[in-house]
Amino acid sequence: MLANMAGSLFACGKIETTLVKAKELRRFAERLITIAKKGDLHRRRIAVARLGDKRIVKKLFEEIAPVYADRNGGYTRILKLGQRRGDAAETCIVMLVEAGEASAAEKKDEGAEAPKAEEAK
User: Fold this and answer.
1) Measured between alpha carbons, how far is 71 from 115 in angstroms, rounded to an integer?
2) CATH number, domain at 31?
């Protein structure tokens, strides 16, 4: 189940699922991205063994992993949606974080703090 969910996450960029499954998926997917960042043949065979789909592994190694080359974890985000109507299970969206978001947020925070320090003087 986790392999299928991770394959859908890598293919589409985001999926909707329950919170418990999302937390397990996060562990599984982030480990695969870390494996893919190394990029050698042995790691590719490990990823094929875990995912089972060579097409998804190719996308993971050639498109997704290079985006996160300078990032040390935190490749996925979980957004809670609320309870499902039928069984009241907590639902959420699991999505891949864009690589530029964290650096843009840090720059934005640094830019906001700098004028405050100058105004105090």
Assistant:
1) 28
2) 3.90.1030.10
Residue range of the domain that includes 33: 2-120
Q: Record the pTM.
A: 0.77
Q: Is 89 helix (H, G, I), strand (E, B) or coil?
A: coil
Long-range Cβ contact pairs of 39-43 (< 8 A, separation 24 or more): 39/65
For 27-80, how does the pLDDT look when each residue is reduced to its tens digit (9 = 90+)?
999 999 999 999 899 999 999 999 999 999 999 999 999 999 998 989 999 999
Distance CA 101, CA 119 (A): 28
Q: Kindly state the tokens that stand for 57.
A: 């592994």
Rounded CA-CA distance 103/100 in Å is: 5
Place of tokens 């300078």: 70
Return the bridge partners of 83, or none: 90
Q: Domain total for the chain? A: 1
Q: Which residues contact 22 (CB under 8 A, 6 or more apart)?
A: 78, 92, 94
Whether the Cβ atoms of residue 117 and residue 109 lie closer than 8 Å to each other: no
